[in-house]
Specification:
Elements lengths: L1 H16 L14 E6 L6 E6 L7 E5 L12 H18 L3 E4 L10 H10 L4 E8 L10 E5 L5 H22 L9 E4 L3 H4 L5 E8 L3 H8 L1 H18 L2
Parallel strand pairs: 1-4, 1-5, 5-8, 6-7
Antiparallel strand pairs: 2-3, 6-8
Helix pairs in contact: 2-7, 4-7
C-alpha cells in the first residue's frame, strides 16, 4: 500500500510540472539582438572601404555631434541609451551583444558590422543622435540600408525600421524628422558591411536646445528605450 501511495504522489508531481495543452512553455526562446552605440571617445580619421570590394573610402569613426545646451557628446548619450536598451531586452529574455560598453575603444564602423554579423543577430540596432545647423529642426528618424550590396537585408530592414519608428513616436510623442522619418541610405559603412537586418535610430537633434535637454534626461531615455523594445518585439514576431 505504501508503494502504491508513493507512485500516485510521484505521478501527481510529474503531471503538475508538465504544461497543460495550449499553454506556452516558460522557457520560450528569444532572438539575438546586437546593439551598436555610435561613435567613441576619440574619432579615428583613418579610412576604410565603405563596402566590401569598394574603392570608395570613408573615415572609420567620426566624432559625432554634441549637445548645444547640455554639452554632452553624442558618444556618451548613445552609450547611456544603449545600456538601458540592453538591460530592458535581457529582462525580456533576449540574448544581447553590444559593440562597445565603454567610451575608450577604437572600433571602426565596418568592424562593428562584422561583430554583429558574427553574433548572427536577428536585428542590429545602431543608436545615434542627430545634429543640424538649424537649431529649430527636431524629431526622430530611423535609417535602413538600400544599396545593391545589402540587397539580401534591405526589405527586412525597411520593414523593421517602419515598425521601430511607429513605436518610438508612440512612446515619445516626438515628431518625425525628414518628412516621413524613414531614411534609406546607400553610403553608410555600418550598413554596407552588415549581413544582418539593421536599423539606425537617430533619437533626436542635439542641436535643438529643447530636444537636447530631453535626450539627456533619464525619463525621456526610458521612453526611447520603451519604444525600441516594443519595436523589436513587434518586428520579430
Amino acid at each position: 500500500m505504501k508503494r502504491i501511495g508513493l507512485l500516485i504522489m510521484l505521478g501527481l508531481l510529474i503531471g503538475s510540472a508538465m504544461p497543460l495543452d495550449g499553454q506556452a512553455k516558460s522557457t520560450s526562446k528569444k532572438e539575438t539582438i546586437c546593439i551598436d552605440p555610435g561613435h567613441q571617445k576619440k574619432q579615428n580619421l583613418a579610412k576604410e572601404p565603405v563596402a566590401p570590394r569598394s574603392k570608395v573610402m570613408k573615415v572609420k569613426v567620426s566624432a559625432g555631434t554634441s549637445g548645444v545646451k547640455t554639452k554632452i557628446p553624442e558618444y556618451k548619450l548613445n552609450l547611456q541609451v544603449g545600456l538601458k536598451l540592453k538591460a530592458a531586452l535581457v529582462k525580456k529574455g533576449y540574448r544581447v551583444h553590444m559593440t562597445r560598453t565603454t567610451h575608450d575603444v577604437n572600433i571602426s564602423n565596418a568592424e562593428r558590422a562584422k561583430y554583429c554579423n558574427a553574433k548572427k543577430a536577428a536585428l542590429t540596432v545602431r543608436i545615434h543622435a542627430d545634429g543640424s545647423t538649424d537649431r529649430k529642426v527636431e524629431g526622430i528618424s530611423v535609417l535602413y540600408p538600400d544599396d545593391q550590396v545589402t540587397k539580401a537585408i534591405n526589405k527586412t530592414s525597411k520593414k523593421q525600421a517602419t515598425i521601430m519608428l511607429k513605436h518610438l513616436i508612440e512612446s515619445t510623442k516626438a515628431k518625425k524628422s525628414y518628412g516621413t522619418g524613414l531614411v534609406p541610405r546607400k553610403d553608410l559603412t555600418g550598413f554596407n558591411w552588415s549581413k544582418t537586418p539593421v536599423v539606425l535610430i537617430e533619437m533626436g537633434f542635439m542641436s535643438n536646445p529643447t530636444e537636447d535637454q530631453k535626450l539627456a534626461s533619464d525619463s525621456y531615455q526610458k521612453k526611447l528605450v520603451n519604444g525600441m523594445v516594443k519595436g523589436i518585439d513587434a518586428s520579430l514576431k
